[in-house]
Give the backbone structure.
Amino acid sequence: MTLKRTLAICALLVSAVVPAADGAAQVVRSGPSSCKAVALTFDMCPVREGAGYDAPLIDMLMARRIPATFFLSGRWIVKHEAEVKALLTVPFFEVGTHGQVHAHLPALDADHQRAEISRPVLTLQKRYGYRGLLFRPPYGEYDDTAVEIARALGLQFILWSAVSGDPDPRLSPERMLEDLRARVRGGSIVVFHANGKGLHTRAVVEDLSQELLNKGLRPVTVTELLGRCNASADHDPTASNR
Ligand SMILES: [Zn+2]
């Protein structure tokens, strides 16, 4: 094999493992503050009891055509086949992953972290033919190893800049909205739950999304937020990643 050909193959391999999107090695908490958009995100952490699926919330997002990004844990995916399919068919929804068993990543060695991060990604790929490109660590906990593993897997590491606190049953919808109004601005990534743990999630998201629109801030998916508002991104944010 000639040196030229070897180099060409090496370049090909490198481009295959290095994701196209900029900033994949970084931990993303928000888009640029100049961005006139906000990403509403919903974690599907595993649940021991209940349906684990906030159907009224999802139905409202669909009826009002509100773009949303969902982070699915592997345990949740296994129990919600029909719901996974339903989420994947909505063109203004985006799906990422949220670990296999919702483990505390920094407590695991590299091999176990890799398994925790990659298993739901592989499940989505094998069973649903969907390539999830976003990863949110369970509890928002991570270390350098986790960031490096996600990067090597071609995943963007997504946290948040505003917490709704929606799983807390003591928080009234009014209080949640008040806090979110103070924190959410252009470029924000807001975290909610769609696994049925948020008693008031639907009401809060419905009101918040309307208020954001009134302020000229459009709800968008995370990929749109990072693509549309990040001039250095070299990928097409509107391209389907299916
Ligand atoms: Zn979670």
Notes: Confidence is low (pLDDT under 50) at residues 1-25, 231-242. Residues 43, 45, 98, 102, 138 surround zinc ion (CB under 6 Å). The radius of gyration is 18 Å.
